[in-house]
Amino acid sequence: MSETILRLEDVTRIHGTGEAQVTALAGVSLEVAAGELVAVMGPSGSGKSTLLNLAGGLDAPTTGTVVIEGQALGQLGKDGLARLRRRRVGFVFQDFNLIPSLTAAENVALPLELDGQRVGKARRRAVDALNTVGVGELADRYPDKMSGGQQQRVAIARALVGDRRLVLADEPTGALDSHTGEGVLRVLRERCDAGAAGLLVTHEARHAAWADRVVFLRDGVVVDSTGGDVAESLLEPTA
Amino acid sequence: MSVKQGLLALLATRPMYGAQLRAEFEARTGGTWPLNVGQVYTTLGRLERDGLVEGIGADEEGRISYRLTDTGRREVAAWWTSPVDRETTPRDELVIKLALAVTVDGVDVPTVVQTQRTATMRHLRDLTRLKQQAMNASDDATPEAANPGVKRDDQGRIDLAWLLVLENLIFAGEAEVRWLDHVESTLVREAVRGPGARRTPAAYENDTDRTTEGARS
Q1: Pairing state of beta strands A221-225 and A63-68?
Q2: Residue A237: which of B31, B122, B178 has the nearest Cβ?
Q3: Which residues of chain A carry a pLDDT beneath 50?
């Protein structure tokens, strides 16, 4: 078994109090190992986005523990949490969230520079990251001169630049046509095959199918999970 | 689809003997519909009897190659230009199972739905892995890749055929998951309305306010 990158232990998140109290997640446990892509599916309001926010330290659970690369988020102060988010976690959103006044390389280098790395080194690592997602030639281009699929690849590069190995993706293909979306998932899959850990929220079965496992959420509870290895017989079509 | 039409379509490209036909058929469909060689020879026998193919003598190893007759050629042309008959498509066991599940007392329908969805997602994942491999193979295609001895252009087309077969299976799985989601949300709506609220088909026919159905987020 590979190293566990993300672990949620019996995580519950309750919003509001009293009559207005809403349980967004109720006792969810989940692990994502290095090299693994896990998809989360479920209807609107089932807790998918809450799960992703908790996994990335953007929100804190009411009870339960979130652990990223051995570090329990609840034990970190505000600064420690910000540092961990910067160094360990990457986000990919439906609308790409690239900074329009920065080139692709500058967007990708930004988290490294915020973390104190020198500009030259940060740029070199950014260009490396862009190459791994197949858009190295776009390094000096601005987001408005890129297609949606290209922007999303840049966003994946940004999410995984440097030493970060956990990528949290919230409907990353939502704004793309199905062919382009497929290309983005293929890149995400490749990054995970190369050792990253990915958590992918999607409502599309075709996209969730790129994951190793699918976790089904309903009313804040995991109702099922497609465990098991890929069927070996299927991987040898001519056998 | 019958084996007959597949063999005729292949024989339209060049004369072949049974084992060749079988290999070609499986290469083009990625082994999705395995044929046994006995099936191929039985079918060839019937095609010859019906005047659609004719034997053109044996090679040094005694293998008889077949080619299309004019009648056979017309049959292939007609097949390409006519749509596939959906009336003869076999009934889907899942559809029947769920139709029975919602009408038989004591069946936990949500669990039936979820169990199936999990299995279908697993199947979709396996198909997607195959697709990823096929895409990677076609990205770094070299002439000697995969089947040695096959011309590069032919290999490219066989890869494409396999990718399209996989996509078909993925679309079908995706449609099944969407339908299961729909079944589930319909059941939830029915449960909210209460068991007494279920109406007879006649009541539905008089319904003028059905436009809000099927909304799914």
Answers
A1: unpaired
A2: B31
A3: 232-239
Domain boundary assignment for chain A: 4-223
- Is B122 in contact with A226 (Cβ distance < 8 A)? yes
For A234, nearest residue in chain B (alpha carbons): B126
pLDDT at B170: 94
Question: Residues for chain B: how many in total?
Answer: 217
The rounded radius of gyration (Å) of the Cα atoms in chain B is 24
Check: CB of residue A89 under 8 Å from CB of residue A164: yes
Q: Could you report the predicted ipTM of this complex, rounded to two decimals?
A: 0.80
**Given 3.30.360.10, 3.40.50.300, 3.10.310.20, 2.60.120.580, which CATH number is that of A4-223?**
3.40.50.300
| Residue A127 tokens, joined | 């260009």
Residues B27, B11: Cα–Cα separation, whole Å: 15
What's the pLDDT score for residue B88? 62
pLDDT score of A8: 96
Per-residue confidence (pLDDT) for residue B153, from 0 to 100: 66
pLDDT category of residue B80 using cuts at 50, 70 and 90: confident
Q: Do B125 and A206 touch (CB under 8 A)?
A: no
Residues in Cβ contact with B130 at an 8 Å cutoff, skipping those fewer than 6 apart: A234, A235, A237, B166
Decide if A226 and B181 are in contact by the 8 Å CB cutoff.
no
Give chain A positions within 8 Å (CB) of B161.
none
Distance from C-alpha of B195 to C-alpha of A28, rounded to nearest angstrom: 32
Q: What residues of chain A lie within 8 A of the CB of B121, using their CB?
A: 41, 205, 208-209, 214, 226
* SS3 letters across A175-237: CCCHHHHHHHHHHHHHHHHCCCEEEEECCCHHHHCCCCEEEEEECCEEEEECCCCCCHHHHCC
Answer yes or no: do B124 and A205 touch at CB < 8 A: yes
Confidence of residue B3 (pLDDT cuts 50, 70, 90): confident
In A, which residues are within 8 Å of B26 by CB distance?
A: 238
Cβ contact (<8 Å) for A211 and B185?
Answer: no
Residue B150: what pLDDT?
53
Minimal Cα–Cα distance from B33 to chain A, Å?
10
Other CB atoms within 10 Å distance of the CB of residue A5: 25
How many CB atoms lie under 10 A from the CB of residue A99? Answer: 12
Once rounded to an integer, what is the mean pLDDT over residues B157-168?
86
State residue A210's pLDDT score: 95
Q: What is the pLDDT of residue B91?
A: 67
pLDDT of amino acid A227? 65
Which residues of chain A are within 8 Å of residue B128 when distances are taken between CB atoms? 206, 209-210
CB contact under 8 Å between B121 and A205, yes or no, is: yes
Q: CB distance A214–B132 less than 8 Å?
A: no
